[in-house]
């Protein structure tokens, strides 16, 4: 999904290719994987007054420590960047349950690929997520070292908190978001973010999460 400049596209290619998102609307990935035989579907919209982009990601738990995902998106605005993004395939491995994982992803239509190391640490009602990786984009495969950090509080069915990230050159983006679970298999989310420039490039995000088949109710 596009964020309307080359550097941010590279960052999001890296972070989204970790089999999708940590859990929407957060860009920073977490170490967990999808539990087999469950599927997870995430839909997203990023927009402001002069931009609009939409995305979809489908993930499937292959083993207790591995999932696979496919995602694609479409940019509507600005018009000079409009079009469909190439589909991306990703694989995520969990080395230490819910603590340490690695993901690898690539694009079908462009010479792009990424690798990401993911660490998660629960602290009382909070969880800290840290990402460190490498992403290459473009015909010449220009590479970026990337990172992201998120500090998420989880209370009941609600998860909220701030996150930020960038490349080896600078801190490039920040976001504050919230996800609210409607049921065990459906959630909605909203976020607001931007960059660190004086004239902030604002971005709003909303989305839906679905897990299926839904968990069976215990008698």
Describe the 3D structure:
This protein is mostly beta strands and 219 residues long. It is built from 1 helix and 12 strands. Strands 1-2-3-4-5-6-7-8-9-10-11-12 form a 12-stranded antiparallel β-barrel. The termini are far apart. The relative contact order is 0.20. Mean pLDDT is 86; it is low at 1-21.
Topology:
Elements: H1 6-16, E1 39-48, E2 51-63, E3 66-77, E4 83-96, E5 100-107, E6 113-123, E7 126-137, E8 142-155, E9 158-167, E10 171-181, E11 186-194, E12 203-212
Antiparallel strand pairs: 1-2, 1-12, 2-3, 3-4, 4-5, 5-6, 6-7, 7-8, 8-9, 9-10, 10-11, 11-12
- Per DSSP, the total helix count is 1
Number of strands: 12
First-last Cα distance:
42 Å
Strand content bin = over 45%
Element string (H = helix, E = strand) = HEEEEEEEEEEEE
Helix fraction bin: under 10%
Task: Estimate the global geometry from the Cα principal axes.
Answer: globular
What is the mean pLDDT?
86
Task: Please state the CA-atom Rg, rounded to the nearest Å.
Answer: 16 Å
